[in-house]
């Protein structure tokens, strides 16, 4: 029996997809430029079935690509031709909500937003809110250590997960808890992109909903003024719940899409939300407004109620699809920079945009330095995708050069393997490979993703390798 | 690149096949006479600090008190609220993974670690993470090594997220322990800006930051949080001191001296190990390594495997 036959034999028939047409929805994630059909897709309904599928794959030496909702933007759950996709969307039960202890225990396929919806009757919510929260799974969030608009104040996924249950490739069921003594395995699994274990249960922290939230919108004639305002808000001692910036192009796109009253003539728009109890929110609103004016904001708008606040966010939250309407295709980048480099980086991106003759819209998590330039292109034009990728790689290089990183929240996946060679030295990458081997010596879990082989780095010419001796020369190149 | 003195010492130890024991200010461990010290206490100072970026990068031997003072001058703080005894180092604190009463509200030490520089057991200089609040490139080694107690490698530099210094006020309510545990959890589920919640000697204490509604509870001195620290020798005395990490709603445990962190941390003074999971022995007198009670052999195997990734020749004791 081969691996597919054995999966079909041992698991319920309707949970194993082998038909070519039915496999199609699984051939890519949110980075649709890369596609591949796997041998089969398995949709386990519980932990036992996950173990079974893993055991079969291991027996046949078949790679396993774990998949949540497939909203990833770096090709993390891109299938392998000789691999099996383990899709966890059927494991979508909320197992427990403890309102007094403020925790929820959930299966990995639960959508991010569902947790907050289920916790709402207790006046609680789950803080990390990636823009994809209506679709993405909490398991995928842990695997990517996802962030959201609120992460400056409330942290990333890693800060809001208390324990996880994983199944290792050899079928062991392990609980990793923040209370465990010694090295922090829970932190290691966050952001491990499906390479170390299959996450099958997650215990998250729930937070009380703030009593009050106030959105302050400010328009600037100069991008540098807006950047300074961000710096000075943080210097003033306020940590906003959200602090987001958009450039002229994004403002126009978002306004045309959502009609929320963004100032079209502004060079930069800042959305700052403060939250907490009524007293604090009033004090903070006053301080933020003062700082904004002092830094050259020519227009301020305060949300008068919750409906208006949510409406004003709609433009920003829909910035990606809004830009998408202006161009046949766009490529969403994700780098992080020190905030004090913002004006410089935006200038450089502008220069590159002219050089490559490709338009860019900038959407920016200003509070935490996470930049999302959207490069507009047309895949129908021969060579334009390649050009776009070169442009993207150059932006990431710029991020590294100013002291930042190549990914703030979307992960490395297959997309940023080359850029990893620029951010890390050979010994560091070797350490990553060794960590992987502690968990998965046969390299069966999501092989080829997240960490480049040293071969690849050497071929790119970014890494110095002594005497042509490549560690892990036997590892497959992706 | 020239080798740093630390790298030289590690390479020397490799060559001579002897072991090294990393020490900060030895407030947690004492030097074992069979081992050579790799002493970090002199490697001190702030490498970079831009208050507007909310990030400080500091050498591992820097005293916590010095770091706190520097931050306070810019109206900022280490939000994980580590207890301040004036002489422990930030590296030792990182290696022990210690956080104070604010942990459930702001996060633990590991939640503020953004990046590290380290030297592994082969003398290689490595950098993981950076100075970014958001960074998901590569495995999160900077957070993995929190709690590694000097067994994996020498951490030489740490980048930490810092927060604005906040005005705080402490209040207390008299009540019994079981009631207090429930009350604490109830309060933590409201929008009150809490940064500490503990039960000590018949009183529930809570600390609020920033602007908040008027309270009907008794105002208290903010220094109470240092005073209720079970580490003071006159408090724990001759009995053994146990740190129990548990669910915040766990019912009272016998011989509890202090319930901290909304109930998620209990300090128990007793000869015997409390019969709960996640218990660590804290002995100031002995200054021996804390035992760890791993529940699962596979987890122990993984930890051993990781140790050999960073320190294949077992240089670090
Ligand atoms: C419109 C849009 C907006 C987005 N906005 C944000 C944003 O604001 N912030 C942000 O961080 N991201 C954002 N993303 C990216 C994406 O939504 C996140 O990375 C998300 O966490 C992926 O979750 P998923 O369930 O779709 O995972 P998938 O795409 O299915 O998988 C992602 C990775 O996780 C692994 N994985 C998934 N589930 C598990 C599991 N249970 N165990 C082990 N490994 C697993 C996969 O192997 C893969 O490597 C956005 C995406 C889109 C399309
Ligand atoms: C009086 C007193 C009260 C205390 N109260 C509390 C308390 O209330 N709560 C609490 O949580 N803790 C408490 N502690 C513990 C104290 O905070 C820790 O002992 C301290 O953080 C360790 O710092 P150190 O520099 O003294 O490290 P050391 O004791 O020298 O070393 C501690 C460990 O860290 C390792 N280490 C040190 N530096 C490095 C480095 N650069 N790289 C890698 N590994 C390193 C060492 O190998 C060792 O395993 C208390 C200690 C004292 C003495």
UniProtKB/TrEMBL annotation, chain A:
Listed Pfam families: FAD-oxidase_C, FAD_binding_4
Domain FAD-binding PCMH-type: residue ranges: 34-209
InterPro entries membership: FAD-bd_oxidored_4_C, FAD-bd_PCMH, FAD-bd_PCMH-like_sf, FAD-bd_PCMH_sub2, FAD-linked_Oxase-like_C, FAD-linked_OxidoTrans_Type4, Oxid_FAD_bind_N, Vanillyl_alc_oxidase_C-sub2
Superkingdom of origin organism: Bacteria
Co-factor(s): FAD
Keyword line: FAD, Flavoprotein, Oxidoreductase
GO molecular function ontology, one term from the record: oxidoreductase activity
Protein name: Glycolate oxidase subunit GlcD
TrEMBL record, chain B:
Gene3D superfamilies: 3.30.465.10
Xref: PROSITE patterns: FAD_PCMH
Name of one Pfam family that matches: FAD_binding_4
KW Metal-binding (keyword) present: no
Limits of the FAD-binding PCMH-type domain: 1-165
Protein keywords: FAD, Flavoprotein
Superkingdom of this protein's organism: Bacteria
SUPFAM superfamilies given in the database record: FAD-binding/transporter-associated domain-like
PANTHER family reported for this sequence: D-LACTATE DEHYDROGENASE, GLYCOLATE OXIDASE SUBUNIT GLCE
Protein name: FAD-binding PCMH-type domain-containing protein
Organism for this UniProt entry: Hydrogenovibrio marinus
């Amino acid at each position: 029996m081969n691996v597919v036959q054995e999966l079909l034999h041992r698991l319920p028939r309707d949970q194993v997809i082998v038909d070519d047409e039915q496999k199609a929805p699984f051939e890519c994630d949110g980075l649709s430029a890369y596609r591949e059909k796997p041998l089969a897709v398995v949709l386990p309904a519980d932990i036992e079935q996950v173990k079974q599928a893993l055991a079969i794959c291991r027996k046949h030496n078949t790679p396993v690509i774990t998949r949540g909702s497939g909203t990833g933007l770096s090709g993390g759950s891109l299938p392998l031709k000789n691999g099996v996709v383990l899709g966890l969307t059927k494991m979508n039960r909320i197992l427990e909500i403890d309102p007094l202890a403020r925790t929820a225990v959930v299966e990995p396929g639960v959508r991010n937003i569902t947790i907050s919806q289920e916790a709402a009757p207790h006046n609680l919510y789950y803080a990390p809110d990636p823009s994809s929260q209506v679709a993405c799974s909490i398991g995928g969030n842990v695997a990517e250590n996802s962030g959201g608009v609120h992460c400056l104040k409330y942290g990333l996924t890693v800060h809001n997960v208390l324990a996880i249950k994983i199944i290792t490739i050899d079928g062991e069921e392990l609980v990793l808890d923040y209370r465990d003594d010694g090295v922090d395995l829970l932190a290691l699994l966050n952001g491990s992109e499906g390479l170390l274990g299959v996450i099958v249960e997650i215990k998250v922290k729930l937070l009380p909903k703030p009593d009050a939230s106030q959105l302050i919108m400010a328009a600037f004639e100069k991008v540098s003024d807006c950047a300074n305002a961000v710096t000075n808000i943080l210097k003033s001692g306020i940590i906003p719940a959200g602090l987001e910036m958009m450039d002229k192009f994004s403002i126009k796109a978002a306004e045309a899409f959502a009609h929320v009253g963004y100032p079209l003539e502004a060079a930069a728009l800042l959305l700052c939300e403060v939250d907490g109890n009524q007293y604090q929110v009033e004090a903070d609103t006053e301080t933020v407004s003062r700082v904004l004016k002092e830094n050259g904001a020519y227009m301020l708008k305060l949300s008068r109620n919750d409906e208006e606040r949510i409406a004003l966010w709609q433009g920003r939250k829909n910035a990606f699809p809004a830009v998408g309407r202006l161009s046949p295709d766009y490529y969403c980048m994700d780098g992080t920079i020190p905030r004090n480099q913002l004006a410089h980086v935006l200038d450089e991106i502008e220069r590159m945009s002219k050089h490559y003759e490709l338009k860019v819209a900038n959407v920016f998590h200003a509070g935490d330095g996470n930049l999302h330039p959207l490069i507009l292109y047309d895949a129908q034009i021969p060579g334009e995708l390649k050009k776009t990728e070169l442009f993207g790689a150059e932006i990431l290089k710029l991020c590294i050069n100013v002291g930042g990183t190549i990914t703030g929240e979307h992960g490395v996946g297959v997309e940023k393997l080359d850029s990893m060679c620029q951010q890390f030295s050979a010994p560091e990458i070797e350490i990553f490979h060794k960590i992987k081997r502690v968990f998965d010596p046969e390299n069966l879990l999501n092989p080829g993703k997240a960490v480049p082989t040293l071969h690849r780095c050497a071929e790119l010419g970014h890494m110095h390798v002594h005497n042509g001796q490549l560690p892990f020369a036997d590892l497959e190149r992706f | 690149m020239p080798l740093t003195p630390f790298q030289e010492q590690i390479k020397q130890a490799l060559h001579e096949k002897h072991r090294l024991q990393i020490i900060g200010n030895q407030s947690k461990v004492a030097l074992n006479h069979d081992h050579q010290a790799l002493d970090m206490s002199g490697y001190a100072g702030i490498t970079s600090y831009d208050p507007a970026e909310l990030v400080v990068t500091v050498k591992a031997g820097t005293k916590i008190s010095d770091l706190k003072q520097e931050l306070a001058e810019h109206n900022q703080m280490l939000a994980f609220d580590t207890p301040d005894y004036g002489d422990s180092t930030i590296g030792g604190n990182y290696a022990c993974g210690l956080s104070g009463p604010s942990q459930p509200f702001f996060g633990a030490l590991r939640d503020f670690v953004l990046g590290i520089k380290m030297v592994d057991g082969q003398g290689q200089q490595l950098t993981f993470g950076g100075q970014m609040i958001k960074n998901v490139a590569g495995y999160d080694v900077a957070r993995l090594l929190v709690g590694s107690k000097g067994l994996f490698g020498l951490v030489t530099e740490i980048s930490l997220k810092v927060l604005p210094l906040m005005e705080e006020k402490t209040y207390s309510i008299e009540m019994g322990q079981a009631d207090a545990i429930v009350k604490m959890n109830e309060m933590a589920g409201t929008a009150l800006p809490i940064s500490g919640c503990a039960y000590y000697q018949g009183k529930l204490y809570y600390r609020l930051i920033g602007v908040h509604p008027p309270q009907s509870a008794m105002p208290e001195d903010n220094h109470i949080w240092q005073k209720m620290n079970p580490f003071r020798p006159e408090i724990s005395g001759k009995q053994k001191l146990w740190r129990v990490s548990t669910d915040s709603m766990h019912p009272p445990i016998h011989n509890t001296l202090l319930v901290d962190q909304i109930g998620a941390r209990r300090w128990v003074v007793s000869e015997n190990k409390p019969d709960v999971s996640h218990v660590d022995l804290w002995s100031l007198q002995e200054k021996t390594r804390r035992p760890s009670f791993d529940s699962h052999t596979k987890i122990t195997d993984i930890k051993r495997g990781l140790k050999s990734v960073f320190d294949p020749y077992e240089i670090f004791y």
